[in-house]
Write a structure and sequence with these properties.
single chain; alpha/beta; Rossmann fold
Length: 442
């Protein structure tokens, strides 16, 4: 049921969005913002991509993708037809009817929400907001952010939310490397600060996304995103807790999970691994644990899962050390090859990658480290990690030179038969190999 159109700004904005006669500004052109920009442009909108990174802007405007699973041919077509343009000049935001924020929301060193990117972006846009615009936040955050942070900011400028300016929250649901779903086909949850805001938000997204799921408020939409990722974090944590128990009992947990997954109801398979990676699952649960303290509650279940998952890189290093010790070799000075440094297979994204934490721990213990990852020819510059290394090309001669090979990220492009045949010792964190005298599950 549509809400009553009670302002001229609402009426004009709805008409422009319905006709696709609106400029859509996407702020932040990373793993969320770039595919969203392409989706809107392909839907027939004019799209302005805004980012402080001039290198990204230049690449987009030259039709070149910097994200592996997004092909440059998509960009080239949209740039050529002038449906998409990128810029570092935020002043151009005043020409947009809709602004969608896709900026990072990390945790600080105390595992507390860091909204500095959102706040900095709002300050950059402050002078370019105008009446008759809609602002949508897609960055994952705690329930209340939209109404407690963004809404007062806009009201202090002089806007009346739901009358002269419209505000919604719609969490991103990108899954890089997933060939079955993309930005267009993944259903979009949306909540508005007012019924009028929600109505315009629905109109904004339904023209570019196949399915839109309206909810009662921005807080509900914010909570939905957290619950999705907490669900995964807790269940993966459960499997990671069961992994050493199953090992002591002489049971292959991966075989157990595959068998349990044959049940056609009541069970969803989750698999253990070397830890959690990506921007969502290792971070989002702690947004809720932080917010819960405001209401006098301690989310023990979530925090326990976080502790288990965070401890997995140390578990992998311990298993590696134990396996080398059994072979009569100390961890210190041993040559170790880490296979895969992306946070999951078949993507070029290293955010929060447990592989890199494993490398850091091994380095501290004196191991002689190398890595191989087809998506990273050179180890990229990271905020907390630095390894002056180049990716090794796997061959039988190369594999034979290492005391241990750790399978940290199981890219499909790896030659697993070659790895199995010519590695002296394999530490398998992904259940890719059958256990044997030289294959150790970790």
């Amino acid at each position: 049921m549509q809400s009553k159109v009670n302002s001229k700004y609402q009426k004009i904005l709805l008409e422009n969005l319905q006709k696709k006669d609106s400029l859509i500004a996407i702020v932040g052109l990373g793993y969320v913002g770039l595919p969203l920009s392409l989706t809107y442009a392909e839907a027939g909108f004019q799209v302005l991509g805004l980012d402080i990174d001039s290198q990204k802007v230049d690449l987009i405007n030259s039709g070149k993708s910097y994200i592996q699973h997004i092909k440059s041919v998509r960009l080239e077509k949209l740039i050529k037809t002038k449906r998409l343009l990128a810029d570092t000049n935020f002043e151009r935001a005043k020409d947009a009817d809709a602004l969608i924020l896709c900026v990072p929301t990390p945790l600080n060193q105390y595992r507390e929400p860091d909204l500095s990117f959102i706040q900095a972006t709002m300050n950059q846009l402050r002078d370019y907001f105008r009446k008759g615009q809609i602002l949508s936040l897609e960055s994952t955050t705690y329930p209340g952010t939209t109404d407690e942070v963004l809404k007062p900011f806009l009201e202090n400028i002089g806007f009346e939310i739901g009358e002269t300016f419209f505000l919604v929250y719609s969490p991103e649901r990108e899954d890089p490397g997933n060939l079955n779903y993309n930005t267009f086909t993944i259903p979009k949850v949306i909540g508005g600060s007012t019924p009028q805001c929600k109505e315009i938000g629905i109109s904004l997204y339904e023209k570019a996304i196949k399915t839109v799921i309206p909810v009662s408020s921005t807080r509900t939409a914010e909570m939905t995103k957290l619950v999705e990722n907490i669900h995964r974090a807790v269940n993966i944590g459960l499997m990671n807790e069961l992994k050493p128990l199953a090992e002591r009992m002489g049971i292959d947990l991966h075989e157990v999970i595959r068998a349990a997954a044959t049940k056609p109801f009541g069970f969803v398979p989750y698999y253990p691994g070397p830890g959690l990676g990506g921007h969502c699952i290792p971070i989002d649960p702690f947004y809720l644990t932080w917010k819960a303290r405001e209401f006098g509650m301690h989310t023990r279940f979530i925090e326990l899962a976080g502790e288990i998952n965070t401890a997995m890189p140390s578990y992998v290093v311990q298993k590696t050390g134990d396996a080398l010790n059994e072979a009569g070799k100390p961890l210190k000075g041993s040559k170790i090859l880490v296979l895969g440094i992306a946070y999951k297979k078949n993507i070029d994204d290293m955010r929060e990658s447990p592989s890199v934490e494993i490398m850091k721990l091994l380095q501290k213990k004196g191991a002689d480290l190398s890595y191989s990852d087809p998506f990273f020819p050179s180890f990229p510059q990271m905020r907390l990690y630095s390894f002056p290394l180049q990716s090794e090309k796997i061959s039988k001669n190369i594999l034979a030179t290492y005391d241990a090979v750790i399978l940290a990220t199981d890219h499909d492009s790896f030659d697993y038969q070659l790895i199995k045949d010519y590695s002296e010792l394999i530490i398998d964190t992904r259940g890719r190999f059958e256990q044997s005298l030289k294959v150790i599950r970790a």
